[in-house]
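Input structure tokens:
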């Protein structure tokens, strides 16, 4: 059951549920607060909830916030289904299809080759109608859309788009060439029906657990974003952005568009810290992030991190992480030797064979004194 909710939306973030579950159970107790300042897909917040912990998480990216909050809320299938029914009724009855058709004409050519015309109109309507930032049901629905927004249409009838990776959205010009060379056209998808099916798959029979706290925030400002848990967090479990590996804003541009962003890839508009290319800037950013959540921690807490880099050796990465923690906390003690895991494959390579990325990830665990 937990895997159904974890799979609500995949993207490049190698933070498996099994790893998170093991760390939550090892380094925290029932009713402890577990916090993730780089929440990504919301794996930490969901696993902490299911393990009987109190969960809090933040992220500066709207896609990550939306996905994490969808996994933090205690929702019923009935509430979500009723909202889908109401939105579809509004769409059909009040001629929103005509409005969406006009709106689609102003989009770049990519969108008309990426989505069947009726599918695109329904997506545009939902993009305008969903109050995902504040309403928990709408946030869950938006997360469902993000999970189906693009993917391999030949493998899944739930993918709304022409043939694309599920994890990231390739650039518009590359996608148009890819589709033209292979004569690929989008297939008609009934968006509302697919959302009902996906909601039932993920919520039916889900155990009743307490909701978590998720907020849209820069990691460096999380103490201000979560004043009610000051001094209460026992475990920080997170995977910060990797050094010079990938750009979340660029890779998730299509999902960012659905949440109100621009209809094209952007760089550095959501965050200037999306992809650090120099170790010095990266270490400074991490030190500021640790300082940002330090007031939330108990006097003695544990920090577990999954890190990655294309060019730093294990010893360099370990030394840098230790130095940043030592600069912020009064005492830092390594709880276990770093564990290295290889990244076996990435879906984007099937669509763009020349892509290069992080080859391995490293896990760290530290006891710190705030």
């Amino acid at each position: 059951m937990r895997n159904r909710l974890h799979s609500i939306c995949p993207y490049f973030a190698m933070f498996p549920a099994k790893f998170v579950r093991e760390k939550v159970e090892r380094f925290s107790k029932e009713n402890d607060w577990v916090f993730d300042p780089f929440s990504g897909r919301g794996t930490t917040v969901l696993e902490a909830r299911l393990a009987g912990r109190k969960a809090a998480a933040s992220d500066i990216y709207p896609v990550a916030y939306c996905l994490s909050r969808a996994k933090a809320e205690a929702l019923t299938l009935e509430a979500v289904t009723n909202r889908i029914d109401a939105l579809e009724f509004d769409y059909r009855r009040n001629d929103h299809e005509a409005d969406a058709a006009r709106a689609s004409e102003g989009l770049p050519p990519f969108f008309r080759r990426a989505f069947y015309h009726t599918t695109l109109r329904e997506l545009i309507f939902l993009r305008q109608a969903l109050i995902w930032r504040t309403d928990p049901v709408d946030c869950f629905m938006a997360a469902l859309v993000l999970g189906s927004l693009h993917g391999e249409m030949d493998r899944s009838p739930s993918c709304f788009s022409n043939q694309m990776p599920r994890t990231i959205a390739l650039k518009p010009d590359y996608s148009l060439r890819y589709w033209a060379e292979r004569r690929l056209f989008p297939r008609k998808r009934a968006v509302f029906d697919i959302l009902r099916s996906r909601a039932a798959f993920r919520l039916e029979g889900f155990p009743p657990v307490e909701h978590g706290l998720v907020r849209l925030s820069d990691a460096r400002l999380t103490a201000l974003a979560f004043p009610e848990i000051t001094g209460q967090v026992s475990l920080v479990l997170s995977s910060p952005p990797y050094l010079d590996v990938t750009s979340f804003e660029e890779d998730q541009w299509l999902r960012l568009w659905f949440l109100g962003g621009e209809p094209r890839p952007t760089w550095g508009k959501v965050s200037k810290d999306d992809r650090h290319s120099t170790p010095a800037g990266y270490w400074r950013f991490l030190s500021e992030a640790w300082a940002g959540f330090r007031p939330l921690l108990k006097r003695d807490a544990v920090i577990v991190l999954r890190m990655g880099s294309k060019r730093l050796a294990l010893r360099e990465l370990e030394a840098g992480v230790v130095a940043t923690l030592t600069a912020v906390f009064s005492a830092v003690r390594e709880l276990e030797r770093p564990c290295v895991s290889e990244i076996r494959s990435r879906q984007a390579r099937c669509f763009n064979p020349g892509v290069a990325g992080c080859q391995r990830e490293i896990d760290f665990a530290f006891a710190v004194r705030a």
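The chain is about 45% helix and 15% strand. The longest strand covers residues 297-308.
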